[in-house]
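Hi L.,

As promised, HSF-type DNA-binding domain-containing protein:
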Amino acid sequence: MTFPYDTHDLINRCNEDAPSVAAWSDDGLHFTIKDKTTFEKDFLTTKYTTFTRRLHNYGFRKINSELEASGKTLLKDEEHFKHISFKRGQRDLCDNVKRKAKPTLKTLAERFRRLTSKNRLLMDEHNRQADEIKRLSEEIEHLK
């Protein structure tokens, strides 16, 4: 489970040596990738998309829209990532950053059952609304 530790060290290094590329937020609760091209070329051993996929696999969230909603102005192409157990100066918290488990067949079957049930409810509602629209259209025609 070195990815969280490696990422923490990487963000620390960027924060010190290349803050225009990647850095911790002022409060240290999330980090920002400011220059994806340079970050990939000079700091990553993989493609940037692979790095972000791994972040998501470990439970990191991209929080750009949350920051914008709070009134923060973001630079073009900036990406902000957050994990509850990933904070500046608290490398030991990386123990809590775990890779998401792959769903079991039982979990997938349950998810499929729930989605099928929801789909059935939505189809019933759609049909009910279509019948209501037809009835109202006929009523309007009758009133003309």
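The chain is about 55% helix and 10% strand.

Thanks again for sending the construct details.

K.
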